[in-house]
Amino acid sequence: MIAAALIAVLVGMALLLIRAFIGPTLYDRVLAVNSFGTKTVLALGLLGFVMKRPEFLDIALTYALINFISTIAILKFFRYRSFQVPLARRMGGNSNG
Fold it and tell me: 58-67: which pairs have CB atoms within 8 A and are 24 or more residues apart?
């Protein structure tokens, strides 16, 4: 049963790679890469369970955090074309109490 789940995850990863290469827009590609990272975390968790190696879960969690932060950074870069723009912009001089 776990082998079937791992095969299903690998098939999903293959489909996401196809979407990443032929995605019509940049955001489709970024979403496919982010989903691929999520499937990788799932595959690492399943592999750790099958091999009875609980330290794989630590690796999977670390990879999940890196995947999340890199997706936010990539989207920020493509929106502002720089990493120097702050996340929260100030409303210059317009204070309404």
Answer: 63/37, 64/37, 64/38, 67/34, 67/37, 67/38, 67/40, 67/41
Mean pLDDT, all residues of the chain: 85
* pTM of structure: 0.76
What's the alpha-carbon Rg for the chain, to the nearest Å? 18
Residues 33, 21: Cα–Cα separation, whole Å? 10
Q: b/e per residue, 10-49, with b = 16+ CB within 10 A?
A: eebbeebeebbeebeeeeebbbbbbbbbbbbbbbbbbbbe
Of 8, 16, 84, 89, whose CA–CA distance to 43 is shortest?
8
Amino acid at position 14, single letter: A
